[in-house]
Design brief:
Blueprint (H helix, E strand, L loop, with lengths): L1 H9 L1 H15 L11 H10 L1 H35 L1 H16 L2 H12 L3 H25 L3 H9 L4 H12 L1 H24 L6 H10 L3 H29 L6
Helix pairs in contact: 3-12, 4-5, 4-7, 4-10, 4-11, 6-7, 7-10, 10-11, 10-12, 11-12
Length: 249
């Protein structure tokens, strides 16, 4: 009973919003074709469940492939930028510029250059996910205890050993902070790329139901993407607690 009360207190604003939404739809304050009720949205999700899952498979593949490659690129780039100061000074402004360009402006170019297949979607996910991880890792490297590095150097450690034994372990909290952001960005990047062309994916599904004015299905897939993002962020947080155990001690 106490757990139920805690859940109600924590999420009462969400419950209040859903109840208000249902009342607006029930009493036709807003026409149903513009704002379908929560019940209609749930029914639409159940009705198209198998089709949504089919499209989800492709979006997940694109998002996870891009996230993996973006994370790998972020690790390599962050080490190079940390190791060589001139690389940091010359590369950081370019990285910031890439993040000021809207994703919806880059996506059409990638589709034009690389076609409607998965490669253009994965590339957009890489572009949207590597930056938060790179910046987080750089902050982590710079927060390392200097005395630990001096001790390692006095023992004859090389640069690789500094990263393996001190810098990377000390940067795990920073990494997971950036990784949580990138996980949500990966889904958004994949869906945005699918909007502009493709054969499968949640973005393609959204485009099709929008053109047919099936707004109940549109709302259903929007909430599904949000729920999927929240699930992945929670999963990353659980993984962080499992890996970074010394923070609890």
């Amino acid at each position: 009973m106490k757990k139920i009360i805690d859940i109600l207190i924590r999420y009462y604003l969400i419950f209040l919003l859903i109840i208000t939404w249902q009342l607006l739809s029930t009493f036709n304050v807003v026409p149903k074709f513009l704002l379908p009720s929560p019940i209609d949205v749930v029914n639409a999700f159940i009705k198209d469940f198998s089709l949504i899952m089919k499209h989800t498979k492709y979006t997940i593949i694109e998002a996870f492939s891009g996230l993996f490659l973006g994370t790998l690129f972020a690790f390599i780039l962050s080490i190079i930028m940390d190791r060589f100061d001139f690389m940091y000074k010359t590369t950081m402004p370019m990285l910031i510029i890439t993040q000021t360009i809207p994703t919806v402006a880059i996506a059409p170019l990638l589709v034009l250059w690389f076609g409607y297949g998965m490669s253009s979607k994965i590339l957009l996910v890489i572009i949207t996910t590597f930056f938060p991880i790179t910046v987080a890792l750089l902050d982590g490297y710079r927060s390392v205890d200097k005395e630990s590095l001096i001790l390692l150097k006095s023992m004859g450690a090389n640069k690789l050993q500094e990263y393996v034994h001190v810098k990377l372990p000390s940067s795990l909290n920073y990494f997971f902070a950036g990784f949580r952001i990138s996980v949500s960005y990966s889904l958004i990047g994949a869906v945005v790329a699918e909007w502009l062309g493709g054969f499968y994916g949640l973005g393609v599904y959204m485009t099709r139901v929008r053109k047919s004015y099936s707004f109940d299905k549109m709302f259903a897939v929007i909430f599904f993407i949000s729920a999927l993002s929240l699930f992945l962020i929670t999963l990353v947080s659980k993984l962080e607690k499992y890996i970074v155990k010394w923070e609890e001690k």
